[in-house]
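Hello,

Our lab assistant flagged a job as stuck in the queue for most of the afternoon. It eventually completed. Since we weren't sure the result was trustworthy after the delay, we are filing this so someone can double-check. Below is the sequence as submitted and the structure that was eventually returned. Let us know if re-running is recommended.
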Amino acid sequence: MSLISLRSREVTDRPLLSEADGVDAKTRLTWKIVNMLLPSILIILLGGYVMRHNKKRSLNLKSLYNE
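-- returned structure --
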């Protein structure tokens, strides 16, 4: 029965920061930009770290087995 009641519910928009909370538009825009850019930058940095780590490991294995 609980799954049927979930199906009939409507989607509601619940922003974290709103005018009613006393947060101005500039602050909301700042947080929107941070929330869009920060995860992308973190993923790029993590990818660079993983690539560097794999390359270093590969060179170590090559030097170990080519002796």
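-- support follow-up --
The delay was a queue issue, not a problem with the job. The result is valid. The two ends are 68 Å apart (CA to CA). The mean pLDDT is 85.
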